[in-house]
């Protein structure tokens, strides 16, 4: 079976003008994950959404493999949902996301306040009653993410088998692993896990809220099987210390 690793981006810049840009901590989280990955096989291929935080996480991760030619494919199917649109439809004050997040970040309970706002906004988005108001309704978002996953798997299964070549002494040499990385976001990962495990929407929202920055969720797939091997592994951050573990 082929291993497919879903990697959430590093910490974004909540409270700043451009949320999509990784914070300094987010860049270091991605670098730490790349450093930890050196103990594993070099990945065969990397996919990423085309949001800035996806590309920056990928770039920092790949700095630890400077001499490896790992193909990279950007696919908007792995992009996160539009959180600004979701928040704005719930509360018009979020139309200026940077201003609102900056105001909230000044409060000593900033994380609790934002999570409360975001939870209510997500409940409205996923409820189904207001689908027509959103640029991308919840059912459309789920369909996009699952289609991106299915397309990736179909393309990989259609390839000639393996990364092997025949050496002059007739020994088969494996030049790389078959591991595939996907740099993406929490909502996308949660929806993909929902699809595989047949979770309901409420369970999907709950697991989305548990995903840490640069956490790794491992899938295994073959021609007739797709499973979740593990979910939300952030041991590389735990070793570094509690201050490295973030949610946004």
Architecture overview:
The protein has about 250 residues and is of the alpha/beta class. It has helices at about 25-35, 50-60, 85-90, 95-105, 110-125, 140-160, 185-195, 200-210, 235-240, and strands at about 1-10, 45-50, 70-75, 165, 170-175, 180-185, 215-220, 225-235. The strands form two sheets. The protein has a six-stranded mixed beta sheet with strand order 3-2-6-1-7-8. The model is unreliable at about 165-175 (pLDDT under 50).
What is the compact description of this entry?
By secondary structure, this protein is an alpha/beta fold. Helix content is 44%, strand content 17%.
- Elements, N to C (H/E): EHEHEHHHHEEEHHEEH
* Mean pLDDT level: 88
Number of domains: 2
Helix/strand/pairing category: alpha/beta
Task: State the helical fraction.
Answer: 40-55%
* Shape category: globular
CATH class of the largest domain: Alpha Beta
- The CATH architecture category of the largest domain equals 3-Layer(aba) Sandwich
Adjacency order of strands in the biggest sheet: 3-2-6-1-7-8
Number of strands: 8
Q: What do we call the CATH homologous superfamily of the largest domain?
A: Phosphoglycerate mutase-like
Q: Give me the number of helical elements.
A: 9
Which secondary structure elements does this structure contain, and how are they paired or packed?
Blueprint: E1 2-8, H1 24-37, E2 45-48, H2 52-62, E3 72-74, H3 83-90, H4 97-105, H5 110-126, H6 138-158, E4 164-166, E5 172-174, E6 180-184, H7 186-197, H8 201-210, E7 216-222, E8 225-233, H9 235-240
Helix pairs in contact: 1-2, 3-5, 6-7, 7-8
